[in-house]
Automatic annotation (TrEMBL), chain A:
PROSITE patterns: CHEW. Residues 17-162 form the CheW-like domain. It holds the Pfam family CheW. This is Purine-binding chemotaxis protein CheW. InterPro entries: CheW (IPR039315), CheW-like_dom_sf (IPR036061), CheW-lke_dom (IPR002545). Gene3D superfamilies: CheA-289, Domain 4, SH3 Domains. It comes from Pseudomonas poae.
From TrEMBL, chain B:
InterPro entries: Bact_Chemotaxis_CheA (IPR051315), CheA-like_dim (IPR004105), CheA-like_homodim_sf (IPR037006), CheW-like_dom_sf (IPR036061), CheW-lke_dom (IPR002545), HATPase_C_sf (IPR036890), HATPase_dom (IPR003594), His_kinase_dom (IPR005467). It catalyses: ATP + protein L-histidine = ADP + protein N-phospho-L-histidine. Keywords: ATP-binding, Chemotaxis, Kinase, Nucleotide-binding, Phosphoprotein, Transferase, Two-component regulatory system. Residues 528-660 form the CheW-like domain. The modification Phosphohistidine is found at H48. Involved in the transmission of sensory signals from the chemoreceptors to the flagellar motors. CheA is autophosphorylated; it can transfer its phosphate group to either CheB or CheY. It comes from Pseudomonas poae. This is Chemotaxis protein CheA. Its EC number is 2.7.13.3. It holds the Pfam family Hpt. It comes from the Bacteria. GO terms for molecular function: kinase activity.
Length: 179, 677
């Protein structure tokens, strides 16, 4: 198995549900609960999968397992993230609706920190105005006087939704079952 | 017992199921050739072994029922009962019932449900007609004797274990322990007179005998059952002793004579020796362990490819030599490992004999099943998953395909319908054909139904092939009467879906009045393929090697003309081209030199235009996961020696995708074309 990019495991192992990984995306700060995060690796050697929607960046080899990488920015309906030296892939264990776990990589601009955010400092999501789909947001956390969007990972990385989007993307051109 | 009973019981269940299947085969064989002594022997052996093993685990319901079956079979064997259709039917049903009994054990259920018990009673009744007068008495009371306590009886058992007992996997001690559960062992005398001198002693042989006094309420038959397993190579004598428990232990050399016990023994030895060599040739391995091994071998292949790549990059000849030797060996291991998973499809096919027999009787049609290509091997997972779809197709063929005898005679066909199952290898895949000589599909009715359901636009021009394949659409059924077997319109679409999940395709061909052929094409294995690597831009794709026919270089003038025409003149043949670079929307200008990989799948042939040819590579298929479930044209991925991920092309899907796109663009030329011309 060839050279796998060195992985930096998240240093914090404590099982407190109030810990979040914060990261930057298009100049905005987001947070996700650390429990679903398996590891964070540097971005590199990605294989593009053709005929997939823009938010599916491609696949990477994670120590022998093939893991899809989702471009979070594109998933929010924005531009594809530009790759920089600080681009990272956050490996998350997502679950399909049938309960099958699947690892998915989340492409982000930079990871910032693992922070403890008390539940009291998390506000319910606004019904609009955050410029991303409301069901993607689990709450707005106040960190150092600024609002950080805490993401609802199950929704953002809903395999069923993403695969049906992929299917829909192919269908107009194909309609493969029509015959 | 010293062995883990739970585990042993699992083995028993698995074996019993296999034996029942073998028994069914032999019964069907017997039905077609009533005089077949081998088949009778095989059926008897199966029943006998099941009874014996069940006795060892104290599974009373199985023992008592099987005992009756065995009795009838025994009479069949010595020709006091003749084989006839009713008997076979009863025996087949008895086999089903035994399977049910075993399932109860397997699921740790309490007891049979009432309907099953009623069935059992009916079967017992039917079987008893075939039992001799004396047997009929001997068979049934056996259970009752156990149940009603006549009070303890003192039994004397003389056991002389055979020399090979240990080699056959039996532990004499376990029998003694089991006896202890049946009653109270008062005295055991171990007989050592057969022990040889120390220098000729074989540690794997058993030289011991036992004289046992047992006080038990169990019947003679129950005690006898205990030794069913070792009866063949041991001498066992059981007799009731009237009284005086502690004085009956004899010197140990004299066996209590019971001549009628000795008589059947030699026969059984003979039948058992037939079965033995077969056992010796196989090792039963847990499928999970096998999968794990194959996975590891897959990783090994990738790792060794990586090592070779590194070795080639440094100028160290001995190192390169060494890695190439390793690669060669790894390849052999891979072939061997993959072969472990390959099993002939014959077992699956044979299972359908019974289905065809039963269904044809139910439908009142006379149908013959012809099997060919049973030795064709394919991956175990594929074999397991293809059973249900095949069953569906067979039932459909019998129910809708083959007409009843009157209709057949009117059509000038023999009144006996024929159904054939055939399997063969063809360009890296296995083809399974289900053919019937029935009426064929009704083209008009399918079309009418499809239009009614809105599957086809009215006035659309469809080829016969397209119309026939409409029956694989969900919710499609043309049967006028919904029968027990089929006609509800669930089925064909499920069949198609299951086959697609196995990376296979299904295709149907029909001729009115002459019959229908369904062709299923499946990959041989799901784990590893031989691939041909091609490069487009920075990406690497893998084309399954079985489909690659040849590679040709595309020079500049050809390139221009092929670009204009979309096809290439391949030695006078028209070869449609697919520019993968454009199809997969790779950006950037095409490479200066391009190549064409000629692929063939079934009757389709096409040329894939790629940038680089990178050579052969054995690849472990890594599924892409659910996220890419809708992706067509790519069947999976693999990890290259460099650590990069390469995508495996699904050539059949790719080609059919392109055919559809072309058809679409031909219909609506203004729509933006994704495909390259």
């Amino acid at each position: 198995m060839g050279a796998v990019t060195p992985s930096r495991h998240t240093a914090v192992m404590a099982d407190e549900d109030a810990q979040y990984l914060t990261f930057m995306l298009g100049g905005e700060m987001f947070a996700i609960g650390i429990l679903g995060i398996k590891e964070i690796i540097e971005y590199g050697s990605l294989t593009v999968v053709p005929m997939m929607p823009a938010f599916v960046r491609g696949v990477i080899n994670l120590r022998g397992a093939v893991v899809p990488v989702v471009d979070l920015s594109a998933r929010f309906g924005r531009q594809n993230s530009a790759i920089t030296r600080r681009s990272c892939v956050v490996i998350i264990e997502a679950r399909a609706d049938d309960g099958q776990p699947q690892d998915i990589g989340l492409l982000v601009d930079t990871v910032s920190a693992v922070q403890e955010i008390p539940a009291a400092q998390i506000e319910p999501p606004p019904s609009f105005g955050a410029r991303i789909r409301a069901d993607f947001i689990s709450g707005m956390a106040k960190v150092e006087g600024k609002f950080v969007i805490v993401l609802e990972v199950d929704k953002v990385l809903s395999i069923d939704e993403m695969s049906s989007l992929a299917e829909a993307g192919q269908m107009p051109a194909l309609d493969a079952d029509a015959r | 017992m010293s062995i883990n009973l739970d585990q042993a019981q699992q083995t028993f269940i698995v074996e019993a199921r296999e034996l029942l299947q073998a028994m069914e085969q032999s019964l069907l064989q017997l039905e077609s050739e009533p005089g077949d002594q081998n088949a009778i022997g095989a059926v008897f052996r199966a029943a006998h072994t099941i009874k014996g093993s069940a006795g060892l685990f104290g599974l009373e319901p199985i023992v008592s029922f099987t005992h009756i079956v065995e009795d009838v079979l025994d009479r069949l064997r010595d020709a006091s009962v003749a084989v006839d259709a009713t008997l076979i039917a009863v025996l087949l049903k008895s086999g089903d019932h035994m399977l049910e009994l075993i399932d109860v054990v397997a699921s740790r259920g309490e007891a049979l449900q009432t309907p099953a018990l009623e069935r059992e009673a009916a079967l017992r009744q039917a079987l008893s007609a075939y039992q001799g007068a004396d047997h009929a008495v001997a068979g049934v009371p056996m259970t009752s004797v156990v149940n009603d306590t006549q009070g303890d009886v003192l039994w004397h058992l003389s056991l002389r274990f055979g020399v090979d007992v240990f080699r056959n996997g039996m532990d004499p001690l376990s029998f003694l322990r089991y006896l202890d559960t049946l009653g109270r062992i008062l005295q055991v005398t171990t007989l050592t007179d057969r022990l040889p001198a120390l220098d000729s002693w074989d540690a794997e042989s058993c030289y011991l005998g036992f004289e046992i006094d047992l006080r038990s309420a169990a019947s003679h038959a129950t005690l006898n059952e205990v030794f069913d397993f070792v009866r063949d190579d041991c001498e066992v004598h059981i007799s009731a002793v009237d009284d005086t428990p502690f004085e009956t232990a004899p010197g140990g050399t004299e066996l209590v004579a019971q001549p009628e016990q000795l008589a059947p023994a030699p026969q059984r030895v003979a039948t058992n020796s037939e079965a033995k060599p077969r056992d010796g040739n196989y090792v039963r391995v847990n499928a999970d362990k096998l999968d794990e091994l194959i996975n590891l071998v897959g990783e090994l292949v990738i790792a060794s490819a990586g090592a070779s790549l590194l070795a080639r990059s440094c100028t160290n000849d001995p190192l390169q030599e060494a890695t190439s030797t390793v690669s060669g060996l790894v390849e052999e291991i891979l072939d061997g490992a993959l072969h472990l998973r390959m099993i002939p499809i014959g077992d699956t096919f044979n299972r359908f004999r019974r289905v065809v027999r039963d269904v044809s009787q139910e439908l009142g049609k006379d149908i013959d099943l012809l099997i060919s290509g049973a030795e064709t091997e394919l991956d175990k997972t594929v074999v397991e998953k293809i059973g249900d779809p095949l069953m569906h197709l067979l039932r459909n063929a019998m129910d809708h395909g083959i007409e009843n005898a009157t209709a057949r005679r009117e059509a000038g066909k023999p009144s006996k319908g024929h159904l054939s199952l055939n399997a063969y290898h063809d360009s890296g895949s296995i083809v399974i054909e289900i053919a019937d000589d029935g009426a064929g599909l009704n083209r008009e009715r399918i079309l009418a139904k499809a239009q009614e359901r809105g599957l086809v636009a009215t006035g659309a021009q469809l080829t016969d092939q397209e119309i026939y394949n409409l029956i694989f659409e969900p919710g499609f059924s043309t049967a006028e009467a919904v029968t027990n077997l089929s006609g509800r319109g669930v089925g064909m679409d499920v069949v198609k879906r299951n086959i697609t999940l196995l990376r296979g395709t299904v295709d149907l061909d029909s001729r009115p009045g002459q019959g229908t052929v369904v062709r299923i094409r499946l990959p041989l294995t799901l784990a590893i393929i031989n691939g041909f690597l091609v490069g487009i831009d920075q990406s690497t794709y893998v084309i399954p090697l079985d489909m690659v026919q040849e590679c040709i270089e595309l020079d500049e003038p050809q390139r221009q003309s092929s670009r204009d025409q979309g096809y290439l003149d391949l030695r006078g043949e028209v070869l449609p081209l697919v520019d993968l670079r454009e199809h997969f929307s790779h950006e950037g200008p095409p490479a200066r030199r391009q190549n064409v990989v000629v692929v063939r799948y079934a009757e389709h042939k096409a040329g894939l235009v790629v940038d680089d040819l990178l050579g052969e590579f054995q690849t472990v298929i890594k599924p892409l996961g659910k996220l890419f479930g809708a992706l067509r044209g790519i069947s999976g991925s693999t990890i290259l020696g460099s650590g990069a991920v390469a995508l495996i092309l699904d050539v059949p899907a790719l080609l059919s995708q392109i055919v559809q796109l072309e058809a679409r663009t031909a219909q609506a030329p203004q729509s933006p074309s994704v495909v390259v011309r």
